[in-house]
Specification:
This protein has 455 residues and is α/β, with parallel strands linked by helices. The protein has 16 helices and 16 strands.
């Protein structure tokens, strides 16, 4: 029985100073999983920034195939501020919570056949500082920007490879989804620039992977087009919106005197009220950004949302019941007293300073790095039309025309390849984090791409 309902750690100013700045340990057993883990899991901290005042926590899972030669991938969950445990337990990792009515006991972990670790070693990193179990040792270090996030990630990787030299020659990729569309290309460029400058260790960078990525300021405009294509608004309203708003639907760019545009946007909001934007076909469960926050004392005591609701976001709350247990945090080798509260998606002391990532994609394309960009095609948060728009803006020629890609004889999505070694793919029926909704299709997509096979 869980008696305390919010993970409250007493912040102890001496807790981190008595612990090695960089530490790692193997995890052979996890509470909730029957028996020893059948894969290699390591967790630890790496200190970065001035005086290593930023301590970044990670989960490392070695490839279950051929770790000596398989690619190594850094995975950053979006947000910013969402713990990488989201990617591990809900998207691409080898274990997940068993789908069952929650009865108040420790949630059960089971193996999943759709793990990307079948063909790659993956480092799930809690970043930026303040995310998950990552923490700052000073007040100044607790604030970061997206550029600092990227600097920290690059420093993390260099130090991680220094302590794991057996992986330094493996092909390396940077990956993530949602807001990670912002830092992943920047991190990739930092690694590339560091290699060219002769910084050691040399990282065998090959490319990057992004799902439904935040990329450029105008992408929210494509929600209107998506809504029309999905039949959420009428053709008449779509045409009227385009005519009165001139294709620009962001409120800060619409004149107060443009009454027609404002009225049409109100009609639009009425039409989509009750639509679950991360996946428009799923039940509406309230504001997704509020539902991913830490549950309250009352919510954790109410078992019925987990047992009777079809809402996917309620099922993600199982991680709180699991990670609240002291035995789980002990098994993960976390440092007690370093964070006040573990929240899957935290409100951070974070400033965004880069809004258009297209120049980074352009530069990486010129350098010849491979990239896989995929979109769950039922996501309204970052619609697939906006991703296709910025890919077109790169202005590279198409070398494999738009076509379907299949799994088990069925269409799993559509794909197109470009002369800059970029592959774009939709995942049919996928939502904002496509592997969460369509794990079998996404692992097939990734396996083919990482093996240099056509989708």
């Amino acid at each position: 029985m869980i008696w305390f309902l919010t993970i409250v750690f007493i912040i102890c100013s001496h807790a981190s100073t008595s612990t090695s700045a960089n530490s790692a340990g193997r995890v052979e057993y996890l509470p909730g999983f029957q028996g020893p883990l059948p894969f290699y899991l390591e967790t630890g901290y790496v200190g970065v920034d001035e005086h290593e005042d930023v301590q970044l926590f990670y989960y490392f899972i070695r490839s279950e195939s051929n770790p000596k030669h398989d690619p190594v991938m850094l995975w950053i969950t979006g947000g910013p501020g969402c713990s990488s445990i989201s990617g591990l337990l809900y998207e691409i990792g080898p274990i997940q919570f068993e789908a069952m009515h929650y009865n108040g006991s420790l949630p059960t972990l089971i193996l999943t056949p759709n793990s990307w670790t079948k063909m790659a070693s993956i480092i799930f990193l809690d970043i930026p500082v303040g995310t998950g179990f990552s923490y700052a040792r000073t007040t100044r270090a607790s604030h970061s920007t997206d550029i600092q996030l990227c600097d920290h990630a690059y420093e993390f990787m260099r130090k991680w490879f220094e302590s794991h030299p057996e992986f330094v020659s493996n092909p390396f990729y940077v990956a993530g989804d949602s807001y990670s569309g912002n830092p992943v290309p920047i991190i990739t460029q930092l690694i590339s620039d560091g290699n060219e400058a002769g910084k050691l260790p040399y990282i065998n960078l090959k490319g990057y992977v992004l799902g439904n990525p935040v990329t450029f300021p105008e992408e929210s405009n494509y929600k209107i087009r998506f809504a029309n294509g999905m039949g959420l608004i009428s053709d008449e309203l779509y045409k009227s919106l385009f005519h009165t708003c001139h294709g620009e639907y962001r409120s800060e760019y619409i004149s107060a005197s443009n009454i027609g545009c404002h009225q049409n946007l109100e009609f639009y909001q009425e039409c989509i009220d009750g639509i679950q934007e991360p996946h428009v076909l799923e039940p509406y469960c309230g504001d997704p950004m509020q539902l991913i926050k830490a549950p309250t004392h009352k919510q954790l005591n109410e078992h019925h949302p987990l047992s009777s609701s079809n809402c996917r976001v309620y099922r993600t709350k199982l991680v709180y019941y699991w990670i609240l247990e002291a035995s789980v945090r002990e098994a993960l080798h976390t440092r007690e007293g370093t964070i006040r509260e573990w929240i899957r998606c935290s409100d951070l002391n974070f400033t965004r300073t880069v809004y258009d990532i297209r120049p980074y994609h352009q530069n990486l394309s010129k350098k010849g790095y491979r990239s896989l960009i995929y979109s769950g095609d039922h996501d309204m948060v970052i619609p697939h039309q906006s991703t296709q728009a910025w890919i077109r803006d790169l202005n590279y020629s198409v070398i494999d025309q738009w076509r379907s890609w299949k799994l088990n004889g069925q269409i799993a999505g559509y794909t197109e390849r470009y002369s800059n070694m970029m592959t774009y793919a939709t995942v049919k029926g996928g939502g904002h984090t496509a592997p969460e909704y369509k794990p079998e299709e996404c692992v097939a997509m990734f396996k083919r791409w990482i093996s240099n096979q056509p989708l």
